[in-house]
Amino acid sequence: MVAHTDTAVAHTDTAVGNGVDAVVEKVCSDELPVHSLERELGDCARAVLVRREWLKRQPGVASAEAVGRVPHEGFDYDAVHGACAEMVFGYIPLPVGVAGPLLLNGKTYQVPLATVEGALIASTRRGCKAITAAGGASAAVLSQGMTRAPVIRFPSAIRAAAFAAWMHDPANLAVAQEQFATTTRFGRLTSCRVTVAGRYAYARFVCATGDAMGMNMVSKGVSAVLDFLSAGSFGDLELLGLSGNVCCDKKAAAVNWISGRGCSVVAEATIPGHVVESVLKTTVAAACELNVAKNLIGSAMAGALGGFNAHASNIVTALYLACGQDAAQNVESSQCITLLEPANGGADLHVSVTMPSIEVGTVGGGTILAPQRACLEMLGVAGAGQEAGSHARELATVVAGAVLAGELSLLAALSAGHLMRAHLAHNRKPAAP
Ligand code: ADP
User: Fold this and answer.
1) 313 pLDDT above the threshold of 80
2) Which end of the chain has the least Cβ crowding within 10 Å, N or C?
3) Number of folded domains that form the chain
4) Ligand 1 within 6 A of 265 CB?
5) Residue 130 and residue 278 share a domain
6) Phi and psi for 53 in degrees, rounded to 5?
7) Is the pTM higher than 0.90?
């Protein structure tokens, strides 16, 4: 711990004579902009040291001493700079644990999960154990495509309708595809659906983005298409925002639930009754009944949107944090319907998860950071796949497989609790009169 305190750093600073104090004075007197210290000093680690000292003196910091306890040493700030975060003054370490082995599509995975929720990894691991003992799970990618839907205003609703009609003509899609292709080697526009609301048009572009999650790539391509259209037949289009929320990024929305975003994945396993009883400590009937009552009826009564599951977001978020994904995309990536059904006349348990909008990438974004990349390497999906998008698709299947394990284990635990209470109630002798 001592190595991570500012005391240790101040000592190092003095020893090497970095002159941090003089720079801090300049930043505090506004001679040097605090947001561009990396560029000004040409040294990202030193910029962090200076920013910490500056921060300690700022209003809004209730404890300067606490700033000194946020770790900062031994981190690759060069990789972060200009790519992953700004105004960096340290880093937050998270424990990363492993759930596995998970046998999925004939391959064994050890799934890294970064979380501070105790029991989550242990529980997911128990689900992996049941799946693997059952001979494994299978998962398939139903579709893959990142979306961006700019909001465009026209002088009239009729012009918005004309734009929609133009975009929906397959011949014109080819024109848009050509423009999109000028911006990227990896991305390809595959379709576009326009939603009209009065004078506003929301063109939901769907794009193949290789192994990248693809938001940046799609945004660039869509800009090029709109520039082309506004210079031609739609000179009256007014681009109000490159994202008009029909995309729909990082908000719960039916459009992703119905049409998909990123990878749409289904995963399933059939768990023999004896494994349900020995590993999951419940019965096929109790687990199935709970799934209907909780994940289907309960979620319907709550008005859930894609939330027909027990805790998919727990596993999605922990896996995203470990693997350098955009954790905020857990909102739509966790949309999931979990189904449990009796199989083989009720002897065994069929379990599936269907997840229409798992947004993952194995290049770009946080995957460039060494620890996160190491977790992707553990899974065998770091970087570009042999076939365009194959690593991203495989990672999406691992997400679904791990969610399958997590769902199975939590549902089993809840239904086992019910069984236990029922058992105790039946065995309890009536109280003496
Ligand atoms: P995103 O588009 O996912 O938001 P980036 O802006 O980092 O994230 O885009 C990914 C970058 O990786 C792009 O610049 C793209 O050209 C590059 N790239 C390299 N290899 C691949 C690949 N196999 N698939 C997709 N993109 C790739």
Assistant:
1) yes
2) C
3) 3
4) no
5) yes
6) -65, -40
7) yes
